[in-house]
Amino acid sequence: MRHWPLTRLTLTTPDLVLRVPDDEQLDELAQVAADGVVPPGAVYFPQPWASGTPEQTARNIVQNHWWARGDWREDNWRLLLAVFRDGRVIGQQNLSARDFRITREARTGFWLGLRFQGRGFGTQMRAAALHLAFAYLGAERVTSTAFADNAASRRVSEKFGYEPNGVRRLAVDQHLVEAHEAVLTVERWHGQPQQPTLVEGFDECQHVFGVPTAPEPIDVVLHL
Ligand SMILES: CC(C)(COP(=O)(O)OP(=O)(O)OC[C@H]1O[C@@H](n2cnc3c(N)ncnc32)[C@H](O)[C@@H]1OP(=O)(O)O)[C@@H](O)C(=O)NCCC(=O)NCCS
Predict the structure, then answer these.
(1) CATH number of the domain that residue 67 is part of
(2) What is the pLDDT of residues 122-180, one digit of tens each?
(3) d(CA 30, CA 106)
(4) Does 166 contact ligand 1 (Cβ within 6 A)?
(5) Total domain count, the chain
(6) Atom 1 in ligand 1: residue holding the nearest Cα
(7) Given ligand 1 and candidates 44, 111, 116, which is best to mutate, with the most ligand atoms within 8 Å of its CB?
């Protein structure tokens, strides 16, 4: 699409491709969500988008993507990428920020269909989002929030060297949950072994992130 430059952005990891989905791919993504994202009874998100019926969950995904596009502003953006494995959609990686030009801070979120979890894909997804944020957008900090009992999500952050950044108490579905925020600084990110990510199409969409002067990207060679 000529007039929505984000459609040209592609992140490639050893096993995955991350892109803004077209409507057909969005429909596939919605089906993956409808087939299940969290184990029965688990609550991993502040908004219960994945806890309703399959039909409600699927529609939440579609509407959320359309809303994020419609509401995109240079000072308040939410990049929602579909994650593809061998051409099939398996989950979603988010990177969002408010007033990024000034704060240089972004936050991530991610999910995979249940059957795709626990195979290292979430780690590659996070690596791709961090690479875009730090090496291309010039982020200084990236945060991630996970509920206390979400061991997989918290472990992914731990693997990248995030540090604890406080605990918030939330009421979700009338229950108390503790949301643990973790933060990764660009200095700590540089100190970690880099996971290979190839970023394409960034030049065409750099301006929509509100960062006219991002630093020179750091090349990480990807051996496919
Ligand atoms: C969170 C999520 C995206 C992570 O993706 P993933 O592909 O499952 O994660 P990975 O396989 O890359 O890594 C998970 C890590 O957590 C560890 N882990 C998983 N379950 C664990 C548990 N119950 N206790 C301790 N460690 C656990 C894994 O061993 C792995 O660590 P390792 O590489 O050191 O062995 C995925 O599990 C998911 O979609 N969960 C449901 C939705 C969700 O919780 N989203 C995040 C909301 S904050």
Answers:
(1) 3.40.630.30
(2) 999 999 999 999 999 999 999 999 999 999 999 999 999 999 999 999 999 888 999 99
(3) 25
(4) no
(5) 1
(6) 153
(7) 111
